[in-house]
């Protein structure tokens, strides 16, 4: 009974999936499932469902395996190697409900729907994250225009900072002014002797009486009288 039903189901599947089904043996074949995704311009993901009939199928569950085609382009929201266990677990209830009946077409439809739903959920989650990030960035940008709400605490904090800044500016300006005055100060020239004035043509009649060492002549005469 089992083998006859298996052959009959295989013929029906061949008419439904003429280009997607590939025989591996008399009791094993592979069906290529292409996902239909909304608003997705990337290459649609493909899942390979391998079905192997046990001797007592359909009274016993078929042996199933999921894989991605070799060299397939990875999709952003589904990875068959990582997601296959989750997808296969989702088929357990379908298998239980269909024991005793040909169920492969139902399993193909179920795994296709589950994979498409998984992709859509992940796309929606990613879009939500992007939206929240955009809103957060917008809120931060708006803070620049709205400023900080003013209350007693914020005003006192601002006032303290303002007064501190004013005092620092005052001290800096005084230091700069003192430095400029120091640079502008001219050193007073040393007093010249009579000889130096004479040599420079600056001596007056009174100044000519000074000797070359800068000592007045009358003082020298007094010293001589005292010596006598």
UniProtKB/TrEMBL annotation:
Residues 219-228 have a biased composition (Basic and acidic residues). GO terms for molecular function: protein kinase inhibitor activity. Residues 197-228 are annotated as: Disordered. InterPro entries: GIR2-like, RWD_dom, UBQ-conjugating_enzyme/RWD. Residues 8-118 form the RWD domain. GO terms for biological process: cellular response to amino acid starvation; cytoplasmic translation; negative regulation of protein-containing complex assembly; positive regulation of cellular response to amino acid starvation. Pfam families: RWD. This is RWD domain-containing protein.
